[in-house]
Amino acid sequence: MARKVAWGTPGKSTRFLKPRSARTLVLTGLGLGAALGAFYLAVGVTGFRGPIAPGSVTFPHAPVEARCQECHAPRVGASNLRCQRCHDPSGAGRLTHSAHVLFGSRDVKKAAAAPDLACARCHVEHRGRAAQLAQVDQSHCLSCHFPSFASHPEFAVLRTPSRETPGLTFTHERHVQEYVKRGVAAGDTCVKCHEPQNRDLARIEFDRHCASCHAEQGSVGIVEPIPLDDALPAGSPSQGFDLARGQVSKGVVPHRDPWVRGSLARLRHDLDPAGYAAERGTLLAQLSRLRRRLAFANPLAGLDPEGLKQREEVLLSEIKGLGARLSAQAAGLDPQAGLARVAEAQAAASGPEASDLATSVAEQAQSKVAGGAPLTPLEHEARRRELLSALDAIESADPELVSKTEDLRRRVTALVPGETGVEMLTRVRERRETELLRVRDEMDLRRGGAAPPRSAVAAGQQRAIETEILATEARLAELPEAPARALTAEERTRKEESVEILATSCQKCHEIKNAALAPVTAARHVLVRARFVHQPHLLQAECLRCHKGIDTSKDSRDLTLPGIQSCRECHRPQGASQTCQSCHQFHPPELP
């Protein structure tokens, strides 16, 4: 019987089978590799890289899709520096993970220890033109924070037993009653002052919301006679001034009257010289930082090669100086950042009063921080006020030391409670080293022929900084520099009485201490680490549903804010969105 042959069994061969040569396989591979290399070379030369890209980039990035070096760096891949080149051109460091940690915790040490995360870890590109790059998978947030909205902690402002200090003496009850008398329904009184605007509420302004009741023909009151020595030079009678027997009075006082504010500042300088100098020094330091930021806000891509080289040299010089100061502290020569520079500045000052004051302050501060130990918050504030007062006196004694005192003010105000000078210097040096990396990366891109990015983002940042500079300069103009002098008991009593007379109209609404009006903070956001928009919530309920009892409040410090449980009533599954991005943002808001 014949054997059955399975299907597919090869038939008989008429010749011997010989294995192929090993070189055949090698040559075939080399040939395919050469062809593939030629293809990639052609793609690189022509700039047509679609075939080798993992996918299309988002629509805003489409203009640079063919220029991979705009986002990718050799041996790094998607580079944070190149993301920041376009999205943070002023170098504010706002888009880093450490900035996120600082914004959320307000802990400088914790932020410094935060790992450096890649932008591409959350913002994944090459997912198509219509992909939303800003929309981040919530799992990234949950990997560090609470696992769900149901376990969201109570708002910090409600967990801590503290009360808001808005700087105003204000009662909601009386204002609500006034509107009710005019026939306005109790539920509608809130929007008479808190006007909806741009999906939120408009800022309260005196002229728009208060003047109709609190000002008569543009005047909030009068100023009774006070000694001429306690006030700024008076104007003409047509401006409401009256001069008689060495005294001055004013019959017309508009809101924010510059003469009243300037006179109060003069009296404050005499009654509270340390507080005056501390506020003025803080403003000067802020102005110095803003001007430096404005100078560095010009995008690096907009600088020519020579400008980039100069920027590199400046940063190298600053890093070298910071390294020297760190070495000096490590050797025990400078226990607190800036104190040696105070001694240097005071030694060159020509005024003996300034020299004695600076010496005293330096000795006290050094005795408090021996060995570089961190100060307590109270000690920190006391030393800060003393140092700023000393720097103000030094600058008054010798105007040629302005550049040194400006530098020292920045350093004094840069320190935070609980942070040593070494830690502050290390933080600043790391910041300068990052700026240096950005400069050198831009130089590499320039050598590779990369085009400058659009400057729209930088222009917006520059305008914000310029606006803040103008506001800071305006506040400084109200605090002119003047030498301090000791007051007799009689002079102090007289000046305190003048303060009471000058601020009579102001104190109807404003809190005042040591001749200084408390900053009005009623308009600032209470939930400082979250975004809350009133418009969609007003469509669902009246103000009093969330702010229960505000219509009967008699204290401006009352905070009738609902807790997190109130949010959960609407933000739940099959309800309003409860994603992290609904209320929070990873990157801190842009502030000058």
Map the helices and strands:
Layout: H1 22-46, E1 72-73, E2 77-78, H2 80-87, H3 97-105, H4 108-112, H5 139-142, H6 156-159, H7 172-181, H8 190-193, E3 196-197, E4 200-201, H9 206-214, E5 223-227, E6 241-244, E7 247-250, H10 258-271, H11 273-296, H12 305-330, H13 339-348, H14 352-368, H15 377-397, H16 402-414, H17 421-447, H18 456-477, H19 489-502, E8 512-513, E9 516-517, H20 534-538, H21 543-546, H22 564-568
Antiparallel strand pairs: 1-2, 3-4, 5-7, 6-7, 8-9
Helix pairs in contact: 10-11, 10-19, 11-15, 11-16, 11-18, 12-17, 13-14, 14-15, 15-16
Description:
With 592 residues, this protein is mainly alpha-helical. Among the domains are: 69-136, no CATH class; 275-471, no CATH class. It has 22 helices and 9 strands. A 3-stranded antiparallel sheet has the order 5-7-6. A two-stranded antiparallel ribbon has the order 1-2. A hairpin with a 3-residue loop joins strand 1 and strand 2 (77-78). Helix 11 crosses helix 15, helix 11 runs antiparallel to helix 18 and helix 13 packs antiparallel against helix 14 (352-368). The radius of gyration is 33 Å and the shape is extended.
Kindly report the average pLDDT value: 81
Widest beta sheet: strand line-up: 5-7-6
Residue fraction in strands? under 5%
Structural class: mainly alpha
Q: Low-confidence stretches at least 5 residues in length (pLDDT < 50)? A: 334-339, 344-371
End-to-end separation in angstroms reads 99 Å
Percent of residues in helices: 40-55%
In one word, what is the shape? extended
Q: From the alpha carbons, calculate the radius of gyration and give it in angstroms.
A: 33 Å
DSSP E strands, number:
9
Q: Tally the helices: what do you get?
A: 22
The description of the largest β-sheet is: 3 strands, antiparallel
